[in-house]
């Protein structure tokens, strides 16, 4: 964690941009489809077709959700020919996701 991040966390007040990004991150994690996609990508890089097949979703649904996640910098992609392969771009969010899953499974 860099000094700027420490200062934000230790501050009594959060700036508007930090509040917005944090709320958008929780919004991303509030959707079951996005959770499923992030969980899958936390294990391995995948193409839209692979995600759609593994999660039994329409390709258009996966593309829409990936665009949302990419705009929040939660996923990234690399191009191999005409195929885009998506992976996790923010391990912090995967830590949050794993904690939420652990909490949900805990009796």
From TrEMBL:
<dbReference type="GO" id="GO:0003700">
    <property type="term" value="F:DNA-binding transcription factor activity"/>
</dbReference>
<dbReference type="InterPro" id="IPR001845">
    <property type="entry name" value="HTH_ArsR_DNA-bd_dom"/>
</dbReference>
<protein>
    <submittedName>
        <fullName>DNA-binding transcriptional regulator, ArsR family</fullName>
    </submittedName>
</protein>
<dbReference type="InterPro" id="IPR011991">
    <property type="entry name" value="ArsR-like_HTH"/>
</dbReference>
<keyword id="KW-0804">Transcription</keyword>
<dbReference type="InterPro" id="IPR051011">
    <property type="entry name" value="Metal_resp_trans_reg"/>
</dbReference>
<dbReference type="InterPro" id="IPR036388">
    <property type="entry name" value="WH-like_DNA-bd_sf"/>
</dbReference>
<keyword id="KW-0238">DNA-binding</keyword>
<dbReference type="Pfam" id="PF01022">
    <property type="entry name" value="HTH_5"/>
</dbReference>
<feature type="domain" description="HTH arsR-type">
    <location>
        <begin position="14"/>
        <end position="107"/>
    </location>
</feature>
<dbReference type="InterPro" id="IPR036390">
    <property type="entry name" value="WH_DNA-bd_sf"/>
</dbReference>
<keyword id="KW-0805">Transcription regulation</keyword>
<dbReference type="GO" id="GO:0003677">
    <property type="term" value="F:DNA binding"/>
</dbReference>
């Amino acid at each position: 964690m860099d000094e700027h991040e420490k200062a934000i966390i230790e501050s009594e007040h959060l700036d508007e941009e930090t509040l917005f990004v944090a709320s958008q991150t929780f919004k991303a994690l509030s959707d079951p489809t996005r959770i499923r996609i992030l969980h899958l990508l936390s294990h391995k890089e995948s193409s839209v077709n692979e995600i759609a097949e593994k999660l039994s979703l329409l390709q258009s649904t996966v593309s829409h959700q990936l665009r949302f996640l990419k705009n929040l910098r939660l996923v990234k992609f690399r191009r191999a020919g005409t195929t885009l392969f998506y992976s996790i771009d923010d391990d912090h969010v995967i830590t949050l996701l794993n904690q939420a899953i652990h909490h949900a499974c805990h009796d």
